[in-house]
Design a protein that fits this description.
The structure is a single chain. With 224 residues, the protein is an alpha/beta fold. It folds into 2 domains: 129 residues, Rossmann fold, CATH 3.40.50; 79 residues, Arc Repressor Mutant, subunit A, CATH 1.10.10.10. 53% of the residues lie in helices and 11% in strands. The chain contains 12 helices and 5 strands. Strands 2-1-3-4-5 form a 5-stranded parallel beta sheet, sandwiched between helices. α1 crosses α6 and α9 crosses α12. It starts with a strand and ends in an 8-residue tail after the last helix.
């Protein structure tokens, strides 16, 4: 498994490498300390499975950089490393391609839990970050793929599952709340992806988040 870590701090790069090795065993880790270096590493290692980027590097050009990551390493799951949780920037990172957020200041158990979820292909961002409407420009929301008709083809249970995915819950958490087995939830996820023509798990996460944000911007009907 190949992992790319973009972080200006050598200490954090080494620490994250050790944490990943402890969870899944030794990996082929490539490091970058700037956006320019990250671009070079991605160009050389587009087959990476995971890309972790510090938000200080993203600050140099968030949308552009994440778009480049998706283009250069299309199969990679993207995790963003943050210090203090800036909700607006975190939500934009998710919107532009991140599947998970790792908070550097969190305790060991929280960091390992987030890493474990990301490394197993699940979404990994705090539910509280999506509790309110995201600070995403209206022009961006207007660009969300219009899948209204396809969405209507989902069963009530499938809509329920995608709603939970959009709030950052893992398969295990969804299974527990819906009183289903994790296997059943994964079956629902597979069917949802097929019905909505979503290519991979990251696409599903992004669709679920954007769908939820789009619905929260609609004016609710007035009760008479």
């Amino acid at each position: 498994m190949k992992v790319i870590i973009g972080d200006p701090s050598w200490l954090y790069r080494v620490g994250l490498t050790h944490a990943i090795d402890a969870l899944v065993g030794a990996c082929d880790v490539r490091a970058a300390s700037s956006s320019a270096e990250l671009h070079r590493v991605l160009t050389e290692h587009g087959d990476a499975s995971f890309v972790f980027i510090d938000d200080s590097i993203l600050a140099e050009g968030e949308e552009t950089l994440l778009t480049q990551v998706r283009q250069l390493a299309p199969q990679a799951i993207i995790g963003v490393l943050v210090g203090e949780t800036d909700r607006e920037r975190v939500l934009k990172a998710i919107y532009f391609g991140a599947a998970g957020i790792i908070q550097k200041t969190a305790d060991e158990e929280s960091v390992n839990g987030t890493l474990k979820a990301l490394l197993s292909g699940q979404a990994a961002f705090a539910r509280s970050l999506l509790a309110e409407r995201a600070a995403i420009p209206q022009s961006r929301l207007a660009q969300i793929d219009d899948r209204s008709i396809d969405h209507e083809s989902l069963t009530p249970r499938e809509r329920e599952v995608i709603g939970h995915i959009g709030t950052g819950k893992t398969v295990a958490r969804i299974a527990a709340e819906l009183e289903l087995s994790p296997h059943t939830v994964r079956v629902h996820v597979t069917r949802i992806m097929k019905k909505l023509d979503l290519r991979d798990r990251s696409s599903l996460i992004h669709y679920a988040v954007k769908r939820g944000e789009s619905e929260r911007t609609r004016v609710p009907p007035t009760l008479s």
